[in-house]
Design brief:
single chain
Amino acid sequence: MRKTNVQSVPQQTGKSTPKAPVKYWLLGVLLLIVLGVLGGKIVSYFQADVGDVFADYQQRIARLLNTTPVPETMPPVAEQPRINQVQLPIPESSISLLNSQRLNRCKAGQLIAERNSSLGRVQPVQARVRYEIEMINALEQCLADEQIQSSSLVPLLEQGLAEKIDYLPLWINRFWTSESAVRDTFRPGRTARQTHEQAMSTEAIAALFYFSTLFDDLLADPFSRQIDAEEWLQNVQILAQHQAIPSLLRSQQHIQGWLVALNQQLDGAAQALQCPERQLDAAEYMQNVLHSVWIAELQPALAAWEIEYRELQNAVNHILPQVQSEAWRSYFGFWFSENNLAATNQRLIREHAELWQDVLNTCGFSVQPE
């Protein structure tokens, strides 16, 4: 019997890309694009500063009222006095470098030598103030040395110690008015806060209290405290590096500018909506804007910052008795007096709530979120 050649049916090879992986790949790319777009919106939402949120809030209100947004105008803020306007003169000590070489038995000699070195002559304000404080204890220790007590240095050391104590209030004033870390702390930042930022100034306020409490103790008794160099520098660095207080100051300015404009925008809103007879849909949308922007986002941020500002004001009230410069006291007064920006903002916030209450009551809605 003749055998026939049985040919197998050719099997499909993997020369072409399967369609299923292509489909899943395309879906994956599409998903990444969607997530990228949504992610960008989420990031921009959380990164929007309070001015951006206020602008969006006002645009929504103006659109529903069919009116033009009231221009927002930032109130002016006090200009920080220059150093030459706040720096009170302090006489130089009577202890010379030559005499300091005779004090090699005690710490005062070392401190004076360091102060007269090339680096010591260009030290920052905070370092000089620390030197003046440390010298008080160092001179007292020198005077207690038995060999120094029998030398001709005693009258010079006693005079130097008396001068250090007399000039200490002036050096403390210079710390608060001329130290760059302090000046930067109380200078408004370039930008306002983001509405989702939590209170950040806790460390900076604690640093201010550290110095003001230390200075209080030293002014009451110059020999009562020994400075921990590491703790001192750590608190200086906190003030130099943290931008929480500058951003809080700038935010208060922005808040006031926007609230003034928004309160003008809301004044007469019920009449513009012709409530209760007409435009109830617009009134309902207005209520949604109140809940979604003001109650959900702006109000919690403003309340948290107001509490933070009061804590900062307490710190400044502790500092003020140590400030002798009238120009710096006046500058502090602008930001932290009874009628400061934050206090005015609280009044404007209450006015804003009352305007909303009038709109919602007239249009038959509750001011409370459902």
